Amino acid sequence: MDKNLVTAERRKERLDRGIKARTERLYAIQSWREVSYLIAPRASLIIGLLILPLILPGLYWQRVLALAGVYALLAISFDFLAERVGLVCIGGAFMIGVGGYISGSLNYYLKLPVLLTMPIGTLGGALICTLLWLPCLPLRGIYFAVVTFMFPFLTSSIILAGNLFEGTEGLSPIAGFPNIWIGVYLMIVVLLLSIFGLRRLCGEDIGVVFAGVKDNDQSVFACGINVTRVKVYALYIASVIGCFAGAFVAHFSGFVGVSLFAVDFSIMPISACIMGGPGTLAGPALGALILAPLSELLRGFGQLRVVLYCLVLVGFILFKPEGLLNWASRKYHQIEHWVRV
Amino acid sequence: MKEQKETMLRVSNLSKSFGGVKALHDVSFDLLKGEVLGVIGPNGSGKTTLVNAITGFVKPESGEVFFKEMRLTRLPPYKIADLGVARTFQVVRPFLSLRSFKNLIVPLWSPRARRFAGSRGGDRDAVAIDLLEEVGFERDAYVPYKFASALPLGYLKRLELARCLALRPEVIICDEVFSGLSMSEIASIVPLIERLRMRGVTLMMIEHRLRELFSVADKVIVLSFGEKLAEGEPEQVMQDEKVKRAYLGEEIKW
To answer: Which residues does residue A11 pair with via DSSP β-bridges, in sequence order?
Structure first.
């Protein structure tokens, strides 16, 4: 306790560890040490994720990892839309459902191979999500959130009421992946591609326009840009990621049913985003990779699991609202030490 | 006469009311190419509504706005900007989370700017910094690299102007660029306006600072309670009895 106390004699000094001469894009790298300083966080994420399936004990945890990857993709998609474009879209379950149903039913009814159904489910599903949400795009903030939140309930009700796609029974069996390794590694590669791809996209000029839409959409209108069109681009990109996750779930579990529209898929990404660090894209993925296995571990606690899970969330919102990754990167880029005054 | 200048903006019988308040009532005027038009009037006289109605941010109830024979009324704001009628906002609307030069990437990315950019379209950052330097962001002091949230109002007003310039507009509508600025800040913007005028850009300036406005304006219109009171040369308008009354009130007779 005494260590944290700032007294008259001692105070904490923070120094930037970062590379000194740098501008927006230009780094003046002077040594291998600096190269490794820049590469280390990125490399540890890539290598860590790639060897994770190898060190996991057994099939069960590999399945958990793959499903955690689904939540991670949803979390990235949510984070990208909410923090980089300003569209709070809590319709993750809708993306999962649409992607899963398209890819699953193509396989079930038309016997198309997985290699074909997944791309169709991903791109076609994203198109459907975007088109259905298009009329709501002029809405902002909480209003867009409410409308997108409603869509999964609406669709699952229609499927049940109309007894479409075998109704409550669902479609089963759906062709799976040849073996679990292909499934898990497919998920990990797509996850890494989404994180780095979206980060790159946000640095490009269109990413700047996205940030402009988030900051002040009236201003973007005054710049002669159709804001709705920009939002459509962003929504399609995010939906591609979400619908891929849906198609993946369908083939990974070999089953398509209304459970794909479960509210968990909409809510969990928000929690993962808050825990991992809003706006960092990699953070929410990290949050999901922690939260999903955690809730799996706590399965033994039954209903109490939800309480513990909520405690984690409330704790983060109260004590670390910046999230894990923002906190970690701050620590990484700064040296803290005590100096005598 | 062949000498006659082209009409850039024709506003005819424009009306708009909010609830029971007539913000604009039958306002008409013409703006010729290369002209600087000043719009003055007491607070609440409908100046900003006029800008919003011309640029599509507010839908007028009746009346028409033409830009070189193209009808602007009922077009969405981005299409009007795309045609070449740019505006600034009275309450500045920068992209606060972005660096100043990144603020200009947004207009430079717009379809209109890309049509003009041609081969240089790839290096928008460089174009953005050049534009900022033109409106007086000191490159040597790294002002273009500062976050917009860290800029004082004087720079933000100039950022608004730079955002318009990035679109290469034919008409710029400035909504009170001088308001809230110190005398020295105003003095640094006036030459910029002069330069735009020399380049042949048509300007419409909403203003409260009459002295600075009259140093650049060719023609002035006066609004009061949404109606056009007077139109003409600056000096002549200020002699107008109706205008004096609108600004100073009725003379009290004992």
So the answer is: A339
